[in-house]
Amino acid sequence: MSARDDEPQGELTLRTLAMPADTNPAGDIFGGWVLAQMDAAAGIRSAECARGRTVTAALREVSFKSPVKVGDTVCIYTSITNIGRSSMNLYVECWVRRQYSEERQKVTDAHFIMVALDEQGKPRAVKSA
């Protein structure tokens, strides 16, 4: 899937508010906090697809384009780009709606590889619909 910067790609999977407790010393939101929101969204979407537990196996091509600011509404969009036997590839985008504004901006994107697990924590076949 190619990255576009004019409109979000995929399904809105998670929305949250960037708060002061999540800032770095410069006053912007920590990149790790943003990645945690993206990881949570990838987990939600992959678990729905796999109809069970999934875990993050890898991240590829993380791109930070702009900072997230306190008060921004953070919107995470996910697209499943490939389903293998036990793994799924997801393209995940982080967009923000700037506080007190209609402005939307893509701030981060990444490729996540998620793996479906059985009750013993071993990889299992994806049971997609």
- Tell me, briefly, the overall form: elongated
Which bin fits the share of residues in helices?
10-25%
The largest sheet is: 5 strands, antiparallel
Q: Spans of 5+ residues with little confidence (pLDDT < 50)?
A: none
Radius of gyration: 15 Å
Q: What structural class do the secondary elements suggest?
A: alpha+beta
SS summary, helix count: 1
Average predicted local confidence, pLDDT: 93
The neighbouring-strand order within the major sheet is 1-3-4-5-2
SSE string, helices as H and strands as E: EHEEEE
Number of strands: 5
Distance between the termini: 21 Å
What does the model show?
The protein is α+β, with helices and mostly antiparallel strands and 129 residues long. The chain has one helix at residues 31-50, and strands at 11-17, 54-64, 73-83, 87-97, 104-116. Strands 1-3-4-5-2 form a 5-stranded antiparallel β-sheet. β4 and β5 form a beta hairpin. The mean pLDDT is 93.
